[in-house]
């Protein structure tokens, strides 16, 4: 999926049901080509401004690029959007900011005045199928 997602507008229930089946089917049956790490390395090293970036990513963030695509349903997307909205709402609360900044060292308090209003600069979600043997 590419493009921008409006997290304030949930998808319709029909779209949700259709995409859930499609996402599961794609995850299960799709013959997907994996990430071409050699091409990625060449592309990053081709530009002198990013020549060291590939090694930095490999050393510090080895899971930044997924080896294979993962397809998600509209329902999962709606759940992730709801989590993001909830966190963004909480981090805007003056009481939350005051409490968190109370724990921070003085230099962090000063720079926080310039920080984004939101809670995320990037978001990673990890999910798994429920364990059938789980007591939950």
Description of the structure:
The structure is a single chain. This protein has 136 residues and is mainly alpha-helical. The chain has a domain at 34-61. 51% of the residues lie in helices and 0% in strands. It contains six helices and no strands. It has helices at residues 13-29, 37-46, 53-60, 74-91, 94-103, 106-112. The longest helix has 18 residues, at 74-91. Mean pLDDT is 74; it is low at 1-5.
Feature tags:
mainly alpha; 6 helices; single chain; 136 residues
SSE layout and pairing:
Elements (H helix, E strand, L loop, with lengths): L12 H17 L7 H10 L6 H8 L13 H18 L2 H10 L2 H7 L24
Distance between the termini: 32 Å
Number of helices: 6
What is the element string, with H for helices and E for strands?
A: HHHHHH
Tell me the radius of gyration: 20 Å
Helical percentage: 40-55%
Oligomer: single chain
- How much β-strand is present in the residues? under 5%
Q: Which structural category do the helix and sheet elements fall into? A: mainly alpha
The description of the largest β-sheet is: none
Give start-end ranges of low-pLDDT stretches. Answer: 1-5
Average predicted local confidence, pLDDT:
74
Number of E-type strands: 0
Q: Rough shape?
A: flat
